[in-house]
Task: structure prediction
Amino acid sequence: MKAVALDGIVLGLQFGLLGVGMTLIYGLGGVLNLAYGQAAVLAAMVVAITLTAGAPALVATAAGLLAAAAGGVVIDRTLMLPVYHQRGEHRVLLGLLLTLGVAFVIDGLLLWRYPTGALRLEIGGEAVPILGVRMRVGSLLASGISLVVGAILLLFFRATTMGRAARSVIQDEVGARLVGINPAAVRTFIFALSGALAGLVAVTRSMTSPVSVTAGFDFTILALIVAVVGGLGSVAGAFLAGVLLGIVSTVSAFYIGQYITTIVLLAATALTIVMRPRGLLGR
Amino acid sequence: MLEASGLSAGYLGENVVEGVNVQVAAGQAVAVIGSNGAGKTTLFRALCGMLPVSAGRVRFDGEDITGRPAHRVARAGLAYVPAERHLFPGMSVRENLLLGAYPGRPDPSAFELVLDLFPRLEERRKQPAGSLSGGEQQMLAVGRALMSRPRLLMLDEPTTGLAPKLARSAYEALQALKETGVTLLVAEQQVPLALSLADRGYVLETGRIRLEGASEDLERNPEVRRAYLGVA
Amino acid sequence: MTAEFDTTVESEGAPLGVSARPPRSLTRAFWPIAVTGAVLALVPLWLGDSRLMMGLAVDALVFGAYAIAFNVIFGSTNQLFLCVGALAGVGGYASAILADTAKLSMTVGLALATALATALGGLLSWIAVRRSLGVIFTGIVTLAFSLSFANLVLGQRELTGGETGLVVAAGEGTFLRERVAAYYLFLGLLVVFLVVFRALERSHIGWAFRALRDSELAAELAGVDVARYRIYAGVIGSAMLGITGAVYAYSDGFISPSTFAFGHVDVRVLVMLAFGGLGTLLGPVVGTVVFAVLDELLIDFGQLRTVVYGLLIIALFLGFKRGAVPAVADLLRRLVRQARSRLGRQP
Result:
């Protein structure tokens, strides 16, 4: 049971990071980025290719993250422009549909080029006992990275000017303009950041199990689930929801089964929307 | 310091204000008075870049800022406090004020100035802006605008939703502000308050400037007295 | 640099535009359906020999039926139901299981399956309406339903055949399995759906739909019970999906999770309507035809086909608010009007 719970936390931290990227884009731009998972897969493929080409792991990872971030910037500066011109529900709908289109384009291209592509990072080393449970080094590294990045993110949004500026755009875009913040610039930055986060999650995930080129939509749905349950627009909410859902997911998968687990997560999402739309920590 | 010439602006192709000429000299307090729907808010939004201008020019310190996006106008030293305030509700008073100084680092003397002007905000530093009362939110909105040490402060109906006593103390604060050298441009329905603060005033009616002049002259003007001061 | 404030004047009440009122006279209203039916009825004369082509034609009609149903739900009342495939799947799997496993007759199986799909769709509508879920939350909830259904089918392997799919015994040996006969059956279904759509449009229900699309607030103030009409749309559309799915199961003989998957059904329906026009009568049909042709042309492209669909979705939704065909039709109408007035001015 302890092993299952710990595995759940490892998974949960990754869920959290995944959710943060999605929730940020929604909070800032009012856009549900359905191409989010594809950013993760894109990063994974770039990392895999660079590794096969002989580059060291860190360089490969950086390349992957950069690719995903760059992709985010390109999307924000091109396709999203007409979306930002819209307001409210028009914007959400158009953003949803356009990013869906992008998701298909990326998915199709990647599958066409690398039909059997997958990323697997083998982290060597003896299993380490944590609280009496032997944890693989890969899992520990993944968790460690997620924790550190998570902490940095939280700190960034709480205590830095740029982070506060981002939060202000989420809370009142007009107010942000009034104090001299350029919402478009903030949005581009966040798109890049969220792309990098998606890439990072793919990389850490690959330390425990392979990330296949077909995993795009799965990532997107997962990110959506975590973001909604945590509260759209709340970074801390995404983390909290991520960890909770990670534990629930692992426990359920262990005791009941994979398909039911997915249904449980989806039900949690639907219930959140119906019962408490602002999620765990949203406003 | 601020000059609008032939300014026209509106929504969806229809002009709400037409051919407006306004001048605000440095160190002055200028009031724009008019009733509901006269176009004061539209005018102010056009001045600070929140609304596209359909005709005319706006010059700030000699520089043409017509059509410049609002966030760049703010950075140029023109701070606007709209009637709706647009505070960041989930952020504390302190964080709202810190953001007022964007993009620079918050100037400690600016902080001092604001907290001196509005001691109530000091008490409420850690509270989320959304939980403040109407009067406190107004103070916070003005305070936030002051954090960037603006050369010109524009306020749209700062007494909205304030009880008369609070409205008066708001204008006392504005008077104190004026004495520190900040130029003020205020849109106001409550004419006596506005004219008591202002050196000069404009009367805006259905989108056009009807009257302008020194505030004492406006106070004595029979039309103004009849329309806005309730004197027969 | 655009105006950021929400002005008191709503620039456009309807998120996706309002379609025109349907024609008053009975003949003008229904002749397009008759013509469409007649034209499509000729297809077997042309393709009837090839079992493969007829199979594809049947599939095209099935998607056309799905598109009309989605048109009723989303086109009429702006409820973003991202569970078109799933509701059809409920019809399909329920009817197959009831007929094969529970040994019920096909008619009873069909009726119960349709009822189940209708109830689920109606429930989703009711929830969305009761909790005032906007477009995005409705979309997410229905997407969650769609994915849950897929996982349910995958998980209950004994009952549903799981990933490998289910061979449907019911319908074997009947006319349903003949491609040409099935084609005419589905064509009939399609025509019935079109008639229902048109009839709805012309009724007070259609009037209410248009009102609530134009401005929900204004409609409420005018006394339209927006909630009730949304649920009507949800129920009717879901019924259509249920029937289609059920008949498909009996007629095709094989269903699997991918038959009704979101990526397979919902996305195609969206693209079809983006082409043909959301909220219009023949939009789904136009979209079906275009899409069927496109699909065939791209069959050798493999994964690149997905890329093309993605690009199409982007181009279509960027360029046209309610659909490519209506936009082009509008443009043509304007050109004709201009030409006419110019001719009129000539001495």
User: Anything to note?
Assistant: Residues 2-29 of chain A form the longest helix (28 residues). Chain A has a mean pLDDT of 88. Chain A touches chain C through 46 residues (CB under 8 Å).
